[in-house]
Design brief:
The structure is a single chain. Helix content is about 50%, strand content about 20%. By secondary structure, it is an alpha+beta fold.
């Protein structure tokens, strides 16, 4: 089973069981954002996490093996059409250079890690309409001179 087939199998099982990402994250003992990313095929799951995901969704060894397999982290390079994904793409397009400048001013010449990284998605009640809070936390990695 490849990562794409794994993703479709996991999404169908998740829908069939009516389980939220928060519930699946709790069952696995990991962040719901990380679990979703692994189920989308963008991260490999450690053996115990893969087993817990599969057990919670009543899936077999083929799904466990696919969850454990190292991913190729590529994505469609076309401009996203889904409105939510497009807005995130737009945010990086509009604020990417600004974020780079601010981060480098505060930390120096380097980047934010996407390997030593955490992300949370929260809901913030607001009388004008609830707000989406996305928190990205990555280790700063300075560029080295040699």
């Amino acid at each position: 089973m490849d990562k794409q087939e794994m993703h479709h199998t996991l999404m169908a099982a998740k829908a069939r069981k009516g389980i939220s990402w928060d519930t699946l994250g709790e069952a696995v003992g990991r962040s719901p954002v990380w679990v979703a990313s692994a189920c989308h095929g963008m991260n490999s799951a450690p053996s115990e996490a893969a087993r817990r995901i599969a057990a919670t969704l009543d899936l077999g060894d083929d799904v466990i093996a696919a969850l454990e397999a190292f991913p190729t982290k590529t994505w469609d390079q076309a401009i996203p059409q889904d409105p939510l994904v497009y807005r995130l793409y737009e945010i990086v397009g509009v604020y990417g250079a600004t974020l780079k400048d601010v981060i480098q001013e505060k930390f120096g010449d380097g980047i934010m890690s996407a390997i030593d990284f955490e992300m949370e998605v929260d809901r913030q009640p607001d009388p004008k309409g609830d707000r989406v809070v996305v928190t990205l936390s990555g280790k700063f990695l300075p560029y080295k001179s040699w």
